[in-house]
Amino acid sequence: MKKISLFIFLSWVITAFAFGQNDRQIFNLKPGWNAIYLEVQPNQNKISEVFEGIPVISVWKWNNSKASIELIQDPNELVPEQKEWNTYFKDKPSFMTNLFTINGGNCYLLKINGNEDVVLTISGKPVLPKIKWISDSFNLVGFHLEPGNEPLFKRFFDYSPSHKDQTIYRLIENKWEIIQNPDSTQMKSGEAFWVYCNGGPSEFVGPLKIELEQYDELDFGQNLLEQKIHITNLSNDSNLTFKNMGNIPFKYWVPITVDNPGWNELPNIKTFSMTDDKYLSLRISVDRSKMNSFKRSASSNSSLIEVTDDNGMRLRFISKASQNDYKGLWVGHVIVNKVDENSQKYSPSPTDSELQFRIIIHVDEDENVNLLKEVTQMWDSNNSKYVLVTDYSKLHNYSGAALRNGELVGRRISSVIFGFDGIKKMEGEFGFDGVLNTHIDIHPSHPTNPYYHKFHPDHNNLDEDYVSYKQESFHISRTITLKFIDSDPDFSKENSIGWGDTVLGGKYEEIIHGLHKDSIQVEGSFRIQKVSSISQIIN
Hints:
By secondary structure, this protein is mostly beta strands. The protein folds into three domains: 11-197, no CATH class; 219-322, Immunoglobulin-like (Sandwich), CATH 2.60.40; 328-373 and 415-538, Beta Barrel (Porin), CATH 2.40.160. 2% of the residues lie in helices and 44% in strands. The longest helix is centred in the N-terminal third of the chain and has 5 residues, at 153-157. The two termini are 65 Å apart.
């Protein structure tokens, strides 16, 4: 079976053609008529702004919704108010103009005044090609080609039955000329041509086609972890080169049928192999753990992505991603698997079995961190928003947040392992390489004290007459430490996306006083996931 090598090259330096989320297209316009194709959506698309400083006489855009074209008119034969054309005239009465904007993915005829060449530079967002061909007609079209490496006409159109060996016109010295030798004539980036579409409908944009889940950009926002890039490679004999010209780090999915399966970090240069079925769905994830700093507020990153093949095509699109800040509710679990009773020298030993329990942490607007025993999500109808409530005496002020058996109820999350009332403040820093500490005192008469029993005469903290206080149970204290780490303690390449962004974890340590004559020290790991962005709790 024939193989195709797919090369991924990730360049982290912005090139001369990439400005944040912008691309740039440059045209060398000659006096007289020019046929151009736009690969970018101008930042300012008002026609007077696009051609500011350019001695343009008129601009013409073919209106392919009006009629088919069987005969090609030379530009000098065009007259205003033809239904097949939308036009702009710089120095003619305004009623003759019905073209007001310039948009990416379209072809334009420009008439330039003067005797010298002029350079037109258009900056904007790149667009992916999409052509609405009219059957049995000439179509004014352009293609996304790599400057300096453009293909021959014949090789380019041989991949489409509707366009193979069909007539093609190119604008040469103000006249449309038929391409007589397409097998030896090279196409040109940014140029528009008249190409005949024979027979049935066509969506041909070239031998290389990319489809994204969001049309012409890869926008992960703050919450999306994964998207797919669908690639069609009709030539099935070329290499594909990906270039990342921005600052978003990616991971890619390796199928289980290939060595090193799961989510892998996408290095600067990477080679993939794909079979000759002509299609590839590339799963891409943002590695937010490597975006900027981790003591952060929400921030955005962008990358200009370029895809080229060996046949001279070049497709570009924007990828965007934002970091989540850490504010909100985090829920996860702790696994305790080591213990030591030696208070003189700490040397934990593995346990015969693991203890696992839930942990709930909240980070508020001021980055204060609190350990929670329980919390309920409710609906604040007065302010039309969800709220987090830890004080059950205030639940009646709100409505339920979920429907259960036909009634609105709150979403309650609790952890039975912690015995304290309200919330417990944690000191330290939340996030990668951070350390959090908190201290929990369990009074001898607290309901969660394991030695206290309200109805047992030896453990109810009352005298023999059940009247006066008499301490019979012990005071217990717990010192808890969470040490965040930058690598996943439960590392699984199948589930590693989201780590460092909406998933955090590290080492769990706890010292317990009062259960034994010596302090008991335990350790294990913790893993928490952000489940809500609500930064305020009602306590």
